[in-house]
Amino acid sequence: MSITAPGYTPPDSADASTITNYFRDLDFKDNEDRKENSDDSEYKSKVKEWSVDKVVDWLKLEKLDVFVDKFKENDITGKVLYEIEKSDLEKMGINSYGQCKSFFISLKKLKPTTPTYYHQRGGEPNRKICDFFLKGLCKFGDKCKYSHGNSSTSTTTTTTTTTAVLSDPSLKPKEDRNTRLEKQKERKDNYVPFRSNFGIHTYLGKVKSLMDAGGDIISKIKADIHIWEDILSRTNLDNEIINDVLGIFVDEKITESFLKETINYFYSILMKSNFIGHYNNLPNKIQSLDENDGVGFKSIASLFKQIGDRFQEGVEFIPLELFITKFQKSILSKTDTNIAFILKVLRQRKLFRSQNQSSDVNSDETSYKDFPLVPMLSELRSNKFDSRIRPLKLGIYDSPDEYLNTHFHLLREDMIHPIRETLADV
Length: 426
Known about the structure:
Layout: H1 16-45, H2 52-61, H3 68-73, H4 78-82, H5 86-91, H6 97-110, E1 118-119, E2 127-128, H7 131-134, H8 157-166, H9 172-190, H10 197-212, H11 217-223, H12 225-233, H13 239-249, H14 252-255, H15 260-271, H16 274-277, H17 282-287, H18 294-310, H19 320-328, H20 337-358, H21 377-381, H22 400-425
Helix pairs in contact: 10-13, 13-18, 18-20, 19-20
């Protein structure tokens, strides 16, 4: 009487040698498949290290040529590609549903599949779960030497809980974030501040070289954020360092990046730092500007515009009046209308904020129902904004009337202000 493995029926003429060879072939095939899967996982883990050119090569391989030009223009590296969302594609001008769907199908293939976990059945040694079974691709069925996860009721509570936690994909982003925070804290704890301006010059030179070469400057700044906090906290930076920092923060790769939240974070650190607030840094640079220094005036005006556009309170942090006074004494004040317009808008915003902060008007007095659409003569001759005007609210309005009041007075002022300016010039 012959003994056969459960669930296995050998061929009619099978002998011991045939059966041994059969299982050897199964093991060889299984090992080859797992090796292929391991290589695939290693390939996927390096996606975040791809350059822009490597991303373009992948697009062409996936027959997504329609994305190539847009990705080149926006410097999409592997790290950005890995976290890209549909809204990001729309910002780049890619709105076709079919194209976006095809892109994300291909992108999904680049991301690692469910990892392999371990658990223990009652009365059995630890067995590795078949990762091909998890994908629905295992060809061996009950003959597979790896577990298919059919745990018996005797599985221990601890093991079951551990397996469930490990296999919960919703926890992965939290784990990744915690890992990043730990690495950032470790880098910050081990960071040695610059001992002189020479070290800062060297570092900023490397950043500028990376920017000129088309590298991923945003990831570089994000990774070195503790270095930037050190530089921007200094109270006696020389003009060369100030010029380098200005050049980096007003470069199009920063100002026009669609990673808005990340860029706003960089600008918030800059805005509240000693770089702008301490008199020995940017204010001193402004005072020392030559009247013919067009590059210097344009860089500072661009920086002020970015801060004013990104933050409602931004105009409170910049030395605006000092810069306006210096600009009015320069030759550029007669020729550069762009800088003049930027300063005019920033000054109006600052005036608008100061008037709103100093007035406490009851909401009933600002009702749109009480005001005519046609402006009164006193409004046209006034050199102040209407104190009833409120800035657009971020979030949910308390009532429909609050929403209508806010938008009515803003739209009304948009109509009145150009008339007021024209009359003032007459």
